[in-house]
C-alpha cells in the first residue's frame, strides 16, 4: 500500500488538475485492483488451508507455528 501511494505521488500531475491524464487514472485503478486481489487471495488461502497458511507462506515455504504459553 505504501509503495502504491509513493508511486502515485511521484507521478501525480503537478498542476493538480481536476482531470488527471488517462494513463494515471488507469495506473491507479490497476494498482488498487491488484492490491485488492492480493489481499483477498491471502485471506482465502489462510482460511481454507489446513495449517492456516496464507498465500505468501506457500510462496516462501513457511508454516505457521503456534506456541502454548
UniProtKB/TrEMBL annotation:
Keyword line: Membrane, Transmembrane, Transmembrane helix
Segments crossing the lipid bilayer: 26-48
Protein name as annotated: RDD domain-containing protein
